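EI: anyone free to look at a 109-residue chain?
SC: sure, send it
EI:
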Amino acid sequence: MITTYFLAIILTICIESIFGYILGYKRAFHFLCFVLINILTNSLLNLSLMNLYTTGFYSDLVLIILELLVVIIEMIFYHILFRIKYAEAFRLSIILNFFSFITGYLIYK
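SC: here you go
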């Protein structure tokens, strides 16, 4: 279980950093932000999901709600740290999380 947890974080960081780079966020500062933000949000998401799963409260709806919360949290961080408008931060967060979610879904389902 711990191996799966760390694999999820590493995959998320790699995918979101690659797509962030493709979208023009190429500075070392951007990469550092992608790493730290994803360590925070991915850790909180996966710990929440593990807790919900073991207590019997997990569902696909809960997963979607938690993923949307991650998008919002990351959007706020991108807005503040990258000094971009909320619309751009939201677009960035949606795109990055879409690709990391799809990759994780294909691997773990």
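EI: The chain has a mean pLDDT of 93.
SC: 👍
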